[in-house]
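Note to self: the last two entries modelled the partners one at a time, which told us nothing about the interface. This time every component goes in together.
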Amino acid sequence: MTEITEVPSPFCGIGTDDLTISVDGLSLKVLSNGCAVNTPAFEQVITDFKPRVAGKQVALEHAVAKAVEILQDSSQPIIGGCATDVNGMRALLALADRCGAVVDQMNFNAARRNYLAMQDSGWMTTTLAEVKNRCDLLLVFGKDLESFVPRFFERYLWNQESMFLEDTANREVIYLGKAPSGTAQVSPNGKQAQVLTCADADLPDVVAVLRALVKGHKIDADSVGGIKVSDLQTVAERLQAAKYGVVTWAASALAFDQAELTVQSVCELIKDINDQGSRCSGLPLSGKEGDLTASQVAGWISGYPARINYAKGYPEYDPYLYDSRAMLENGEGDALLWVQAFNSKAIPPVTDVPTIVLGRSGMVFDKEPDVYIPLGTPGIDHAGHAYRADSVVAIRLKKLRDSGLPAAADVLSAIERAL
Amino acid sequence: MLIKLTGGTVYDPAGGIDGQKRDIYIQDGRIVDRPTADLKIDQEYDLTGKVVMSGAIDMHTHIGGGKGNIARILLPEDHRSDPVIRTDLTRSGSGHAIPSTYVTGYRYAEMGYTAAFEPAVLPVNARQAHMEMGDIPILDKGGYAMLGSDDYLLRMLTAKKDQKAVNDYVAWTLQASKCIGIKVVNAGGISAFKFNQRKLDLDEKNAYYDVTPRQILQTLATAVKELGVPHPLHVHGCNLGVPGNVDTTLDTIQGVGGLPMHLTHIQFHSYGTEGDFKFSSGAAQIAEAVNKHKNITIDVGQILFGQTVTASGDTMRQHANHKHGHPNKWVCMDIECDAGCGVVPFKYRDQNFVNALQWAIGLEIFLLVDDPWRVFLTTDHPNGAPFTTYPHLIRLLMDKSFRNDMLATIHPEAQKMTTLASIDREYTLNEIAIMTRAGAAKLIGLKDRGGLTAGNWGDITVYTENADRQKMFEKPDYVFKDGEMVVKDGQIVHVKWGTTHIVKPDYDAAVEKDLKSYFDRYLTMKMGNFKISDDEFTEDGRGSLTVHSLKEVV
Ligand SMILES: [Zn+2]
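The predicted structure of the combined assembly is written out below.
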């Protein structure tokens, strides 16, 4: 049995890298600094090693050969999931370029809310170490932060020391939209967050009023979405008065139509405050299951985030058109390759087209795919790189054990070579 | 494998050859002396009448790292206008202002470039910079690590730590981030912006730290010199783009006390406040100062007209300039108590007075600086223009009548404010070879690149002589990389992978004691996870590291 320290996690999205994990053969145990997201993801037991074709166990070469056959017979292959590490994405894009496939990261419908806003008007953002050392006011927008990122408060807000704040316990927290589910947001000196809740459907109106107040416009209404305008006025003033205000949101939580406009309002409000002479920054949170990794690598290899189509021999980006689920439902694709190295519960959509799954070992299917190849997990079974929520830091994932399970990059490259 | 390049007209300033006929032999990737008669030549190319230079080296181009990728993702419309289709040999991608990585490699190689250096590697983002550059085929590459607004250094300076301690930290940073030089961007200014300072002059203190930009520049320039790092401190000065910043730049040159210093994209720092529009050329003063101070090198950062995108670590100035952005969308980011970045799309217009004069100022600087070993050809890709405009820029420098024809078309008030029409100088092929090859290799400290004498790697570009220098430099006949032909008639014929150039100055291992505690207390990753390991370059089977020797320190 060995003990490995300073283990980085690709699962929680905030790049936690202080885990201590014991390794006993193939079994892992998180000894310290685990959380509700990371511990089960690391400790998950390997339940299958053998690839299957039509439900029957076969050698890896055989499964690869069958995958090649499916892709060769396809005129519009779709690569979904796209949950892997940097080398996995490199190999995935090489294969897609080769066979004219659609590439669609599974969280893109959520990520799209950010990309559409960013590609239309841009934004001002910050990263986790800046939050840890500078943030004196955190506005949590539309999300119960602690269920999403369990260790956020402990690591980045209630940290013992910060370079520029006398006492981190004096930081102020405002929840706008959702209420906190636990007590992580309570400061070490017992101070509670200010909480202003509303229905998700009212978030666009609430943020519109908040932006108007930031800009000094007069609002005739007394309340919006059940929140008093006078309370929002206070929020606006506190943001303007903060030395280093930060507004955080998770695009995945804004599950209503045209949520990109709400993201855009938040981003424009932040810009307004900076133009008025105070500092304020956004902190969009994602980075789960390889979503940022996929779009970063697709960004430098294709020029676009991870929803593109190579059918014409070059990458085309369309955040709506190349939605793989919609394409499959509409009969616009004739083969599905699903790549998901992090989460064995994230199985592909059920479809009639031939399906190849490169999945984290342990996947249980509603419908057995034509080809299933169990993968090793980046950061457990092989080394790799993954992006964390603020999209700046690529963490170096460690290999913790020798399971013999292949990396997504190896399998994808083998398929490409054989095509 | 022995290759002979026969009878070409060779411009090899590193070897002292200025337009003479020479045969060149390449064996196993490197240039060798004429072999003994009995050795069989495997391949011979008749280069009679052709111009032969070593492969070009871009010493300042934003090709890898977070801000470039933000710029890519910000501008899908720009990519849509320039799709690049896959071939049997090459990958697909997209082009124009900030091309995807594969396209970057192909297009550079197709112009005869064999190496390019990313000048703004944030240490915390170095992993990404190297991963992106790892997906740029053919070219050699390397990076300059950005320091000067990182809180660790500013804390050291405030605490009056001695120069030796700073040197150790600088050496540690070079090793941890796998870089070949040190860059400063708006010294201390990126940090100051986080404290809500919106401008910072050379002698102005950071609102929090007891430190001025001048101190930062002096300390880091000293560190680079004392460590023996060949590339001088690479400086993006204060007050970028601000009318009147010529005084700051002159002060920066004079104030560094003779230490080696490279001032980058100096065009953006050469503005006066004269004339009806309170915007004028400071090029003559800058050129005079550069000519006089032999410790100073510069690259120009020429602007050329058209759509591009600016991507810089200088959040303070990028935020101030966002109102000039086109299209009106932009990104600013504070990053990890390390630095920041700002991405603002720009469209430089020849009928805009300021843009037109910026164009003229850049050219004035090129033409008024005497020594081609100390001035380098850049557009600060993509900030002044995409790198694909280099052949056009070379023509502007080599062809006075073409230059004057262009000058006659720009904003009339700008024409009145430039001395360009009166400058007769035309760059020679040898001078172009100095600026883009021999000088660049010397400046960066590449010991066996940028020259054509025996011992150099076989990075060679062959052009057909053409009075239209743009046409000539756009489409080389052949490009060899490490002795293998990669381009023929301006088209990729073979794809291989270049190396990453680094330096590894020693440091006192005790430096990690303080650093580890700093990482644990204030940063968001462990020091051990911050350091980039060699296998991150080699594990994909394509990349490699080449360590260059340090200068002897007297
Ligand atoms: Zn630059």
